[in-house]
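pinning this so it doesn't scroll away 📌
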Amino acid sequence: MTTRDIAIVFAIAAAVIVAVFAYVAVRSGGAAEIDYGAATRLRRAFFLGFAALLVVSLVLTLPRMPYPVPAGRVDRVVHVTGKQYAFALTDAPVTSLEGWEEGTYPQVAEVKTGSTVEFRVATLDVNHGFSVYSPDGELMAQTQAMPGYVNRLRLRFERPGTYTVFCLEYCGMGHHRMRGAIEVR
């Protein structure tokens, strides 16, 4: 849907709401007998019409979701593990605090230009936000790093350069230092 289509749908919905309010305002001039059978039929018709409108809009819009899962293979898997206040970008997952303490992990991953990378993002402590910014400083994608769960994020790196990784979830006093990089060559 374009912005124009959205504006048209909004204008139609607003006109319907205004018409209903105007109808109610005109009809509420004084006390009247209530026909409960007619009111029930009107409610049922409104509910069924609204349900049908909802189903039609879902059928028309769901196939065009903005973030389809890309099919096909990935060229590289990078495991991202967050721990206050650093990201480890590794070829194998870091699964425990003991493993983190035993090793030294890079905060930079090297990737070939034109490759598709799947980031498997997890954390050992609190929620973190994993975001990738282009060399121009534009946000390309982001996902949450959550304890006990692995989020997968696929990106294709078409241009060479340094892509910056930032934490977008406030995680404590050293949050501003939590960053990494992806070198695309």
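📌 and the second one:
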Amino acid sequence: MTDPGTSRRRFLAGAAAAAVPIALAPLKPWRTLYEVTGAQGPAARLAGVLRPRRGARLLGRRALVALEGPSSRELTAQVVATLPGGTKALAGASDDKLRGLLARSSHDDFAAERTVRCGGWVLSATEARLCALAALDERRRA
């Protein structure tokens, strides 16, 4: 016997609502939500936009020496400070948009002669910091 306060319609709606998460479990839709909402930290996000990653990591090892070994937190703060919109730009921008913002920052560095020499290359300060972040991210994962 059912509770007089529970109608058949309410029972079916409750059963359907309970069945949705069970039915979606094999699809793992929360994984996409986790990835889209910034599951990685800001340093990993910045390092992750570089292509090719292997080259960025190799150059990043030299950039770390040229920059005198700053921490991941320091490098991230320095790069984010150059982005229009700062932290909000980092959190809200797609990878392509973020690459565009970083390219603009790099261009501004060259215009202001903020460059770093490492491994025979002349990089903008932003590029050097990004490569250094890639090298630090590699160390962290190892």
